[in-house]
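for the record, two folds in this file. i put them one after another cuz i was lazy. first one right below, seq on top, structure tokens after. the second one comes after a little note so u can tell where it starts
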Amino acid sequence: MENRLQQTKMDYKQQPVLHFSSREKQKVLRKIEYNDTSVRKKHLLPRVMTVSLMFVITIIGFTYLNENYWHMAIFNQGNNGTLPHVIDKKTEKENYFTVIQESEGEFVTFDHANVKFGDKIGDFTVTNTQKVGQQTVIQLEGFASIRGDLFTDYQKVWYKPASIGTLPIAEADFGRPIFFQFDERSVKSLANSLHFQLLDMNNERSDGNVNTESFKDYSIRINKIQYKISEKGSEIQFSILDKLVINDTIELSGRLQSVYKEYANTLDETLLAGLQPFEVFQLYMHNISIGDLETEYGLLYKEHYPDKETYFSDPQWKPTETMIENGRQLYLEMKELDHFVIQQLDDDEVVIYFTMNGEERHFRLLKDQTTGVWKIPLVPMQ
């Protein structure tokens, strides 16, 4: 083959070809010299159609990755449990997760693989367990109070606890992302309490963006939990206790008048056992209206006050005539109110909200750990 190419080259040089220019002649010689014998392939599709097809394939691939980024991102965030901004199909939203490490403290835990109906887990009782696809779904009822940061994008509401407290946690969830959210009724209740407007899930925002609003250090009281556990992580849905609204005055009912009279005579703590926080509040307000210091001391939260002898002998503690008169005037003003909102912050603390003289005020009560009776702390009203 090589000899043939060399012979062809020599023949070409010797034979003058009048219709070839010098430039064309050199071009042909280079082709022969480098053995360029390749055959040009014919394209099945025109070049324009090929480019168009590649463009379409690229768009489809990008869309697939974009839609699945959320699922990949959920379980690949950093140790702080907070994801960066994630681009959704139509909106941009910031997602918050909690990662709990077993070394961070003591927790109420359970083995989700062996839990069954009726099991007691801390302050909660298992009311149902079932397998739904790849998830184990556990229903619990009880009571827990936790604090943390609450977030809303005006369509959903979620939570990032600062501490777990007595909330049951599956043993498998340590070191994994947990998403805390609320059931539909609780979301509506939170929207009313925190004064934000929920948007229709089917309505798109005109600007295509999601603004996230946060409520820092917000306490919630939980009475039901739906715990969904999968291999990748867990989702915990809370049902929260609503604030209690009382449309009544602070004046004592006939029953409470009898309780107060007997308690003033005996200071028997069992008479107050079982009374609701608002009822103890009524007893206290009635007491300051008549200036009964002995009974008032009985209603106080003793961990905030000295012993009885010191209280009545020390000028720094003993109520003055001015303080007693101010108490009477306060009662007369509050007697005109007939709307109170009660929120139990946790097992041992309640706040009663009301509006007086155009200003929102609140009154605190604490539960005595020994007797279980609601008492009046130091500086109860603000």
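(here's the note) second protein begins now
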Amino acid sequence: MILGAKKLEIIEFLLEKQDENGFIFFSLSELCEQTKCSKPTAINTLNLLRQKNVLEKLKNGLYKFK
């Protein structure tokens, strides 16, 4: 699997935003604004991380690294 620059930027944003327990709280609009990416790119990246069992969606805006 090859990741583009925007997907890597999104992953870096998530890693920097996580707390000490791996929880990440953000809105999709905040993610897009901070990484200057489109909503489809953000959603595709989040879905990819969830499919690979790296990230778990707990509720809207709240995720956790596994």
